[in-house]
Amino acid sequence: MSTSILGTGIQEGLLLKPVRYPWAYELYNQAVANTWFPHEVQLGEDMTDFKRMSDDERHALTFLMSYFNPNELLVNKALAFGVYPYLNAAEAHLYLAKQMWEEANHVMAFEYVLETFPIDRAQAYEAHTTVPSMVAKEEFEVRYIKRMTEQTLDVSTVEGKRDFVRNLVAYNIVLEGIWFYSGFMVALSFRQRNLLRNFASLVDWIVRDESLHLKFGINLILTVLDENPELQTAQFADEIRQMILDGVEMEERYNRDLLPTGILGMNAEYINQYVKYLADRRLEELGFEPHYRVANPAKWMATANDTLQLVNFFESINTSYEVDARGTGG
């Protein structure tokens, strides 16, 4: 049996027990317990709010849908082509299969938003190819996955292992761990003003999934680095760190397009301070020193992200419910 989580042998990873990476097995079981479906949320109840929102607020919501929908699908390509084929642990494959279903479920959740609110779908769909700040973010991600879809990646070599880690950083850390969370904060900010409460419940569930995706990605990066000490060079560390800082700069430009004039209680600078706060947390989780050292301007997000215990008092749905919650007390 391989002593490394990296490996492309088809007949490796065909036995689940003994579990070699308990963290992956635990995350799979938690992900299954967290299963939810978009139409469980009565999104139509938010229509009254949507009708009385300002043009800038509607622009922000449309912009978020423009970004999230294609990028959830892009994450699935990164998992299918860039992660799954290069791992040999059954428990990691189980988790990735559930994560891919979750990304598909998120796409359907955002489609539900587009179906419910009178958002111009064509405008929402084309923005990710016409808005320069959005295009730049997508080009950044595509650059890393292309190495795995259009070239052969040999994870038995040091450079192949580096490319594997680069792809994980691009998708799990920058895209899911910073860019997505920045968008979640804006989406959930409407609830802070008593708007789009049911939409926020939908986002709560997505955040709950994404928090596990992030945990899996960080654990996987740290495992690969631990099992392959030859990757632990100052030069490679600097490159990874710079990827995250570049991601922050791209997100800053994107947020200025998202909120060009600001909305009640929030502008691009507020969001970008949160982005820098997030980036510092991700840097620390990877073992780096924080770079920006800014305070979290959205303290309320700490509660909003703890969705395992969150009850939305405005509706009958408890967002902490779990499917098959054995031993959790429900």
From TrEMBL:
Gene3D superfamilies: Ribonucleotide Reductase, subunit A (1.10.620.20)
Residues noted as binding Fe cation 1 in the record, renumbered to the chain: 72, 103, 106
Enzyme Commission number(s) from the entry: 1.17.4.1
Broadest EC class assigned to this enzyme: oxidoreductase
One Pfam family this sequence matches: Ribonuc_red_sm
Origin: domain of life: Bacteria
Chain segments annotated as transmembrane: 168-190
Known catalytic reactions: a 2'-deoxyribonucleoside 5'-diphosphate + [thioredoxin]-disulfide + H2O = a ribonucleoside 5'-diphosphate + [thioredoxin]-dithiol
Cofactor section: Fe cation
GO BP: any one term: deoxyribonucleotide biosynthetic process
Cofactor: binding comment: Binds 2 iron ions per subunit.
Binding residue positions for Fe cation 2: 103, 176, 210, 213
InterPro entries: Ferritin-like_SF (IPR009078), RNR-like (IPR012348), RNR_small (IPR033909), RNR_small_fam (IPR000358)
Molecular-function GO terms, alphabetical: metal ion binding; ribonucleoside-diphosphate reductase activity, thioredoxin disulfide as acceptor
Keyword annotations: Deoxyribonucleotide synthesis, Iron, Membrane, Metal-binding, Oxidoreductase, Transmembrane, Transmembrane helix
NCBIfam families: PRK09614.1-5
PANTHER family the record matches: RIBONUCLEOSIDE-DIPHOSPHATE REDUCTASE SMALL CHAIN, RIBONUCLEOSIDE-DIPHOSPHATE REDUCTASE SUBUNIT M2
Assembly notes: Tetramer of two alpha and two beta subunits.
Known role: Provides the precursors necessary for DNA synthesis. Catalyzes the biosynthesis of deoxyribonucleotides from the corresponding ribonucleotides.
Family classification: Belongs to the ribonucleoside diphosphate reductase small chain family.
Name by which UniProt lists this protein: Ribonucleoside-diphosphate reductase subunit beta
Species per Swiss-Prot/TrEMBL record: Jiangella asiatica
